[in-house]
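Researcher: We plan to redesign the surface later, but first we want a full-length starting point. Tokens attached.
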């Protein structure tokens, strides 16, 4: 979470932690764009209006790095006018929410963004079909169940040449 206002940051941390998420905090755009390569979060909740480096620039920097471009970004800001929203979305934000926020809506947007990101990471980049993570998860569920199941797994070498 990147939010320069300490009181708002504290409220957001409490709400998000109570929903079962771990929260890393940054109080300005510079610290929000630095260090994410080391402890890359699953999602970034980003304010727009911050002194120094604003949220639009933080978003552009994160999207410009190979190490952070895959992380979903939700902008949460008081700037609700259309130009501000489109600037954020054009700059790479996945979602945009205005302050004051509705807690339930914010948590749903966070959950949806995390689920979408998980699904994207579990798909095969070559085919778009479920990849190793999805297959392994399905196998874990099947092994844990009491019902019967059959498994046939094929690995096709040089699939790109076939397409």
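Model: Full-length starting sequence:
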């Amino acid at each position: 979470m990147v939010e320069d206002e300490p009181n708002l940051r504290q409220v957001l941390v409490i709400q998000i932690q109570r929903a079962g998420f771990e929260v890393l905090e940054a109080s300005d755009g510079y610290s929000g764009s630095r260090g994410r390569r080391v402890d890359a979060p699953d999602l970034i909740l980003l304010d727009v209006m911050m002194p120094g480096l604003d949220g639009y620039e933080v978003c552009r920097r994160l999207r410009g790095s190979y190490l952070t471009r895959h992380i979903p970004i939700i902008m949460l800001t008081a700037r609700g006018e259309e130009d501000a929203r489109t600037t954020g979305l054009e700059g790479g934000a996945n979602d945009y929410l205005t302050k004051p926020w509705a807690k339930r809506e914010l948590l749903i947007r966070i959950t949806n963004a995390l689920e979408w990101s998980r699904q994207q990471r579990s798909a095969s980049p070559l085919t778009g079909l479920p990849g190793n993570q999805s297959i392994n998860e399905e196998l874990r569920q099947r092994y844990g169940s009491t019902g019967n199941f059959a498994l046939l797994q094929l690995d096709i070498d040089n699939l790109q040449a076939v397409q």
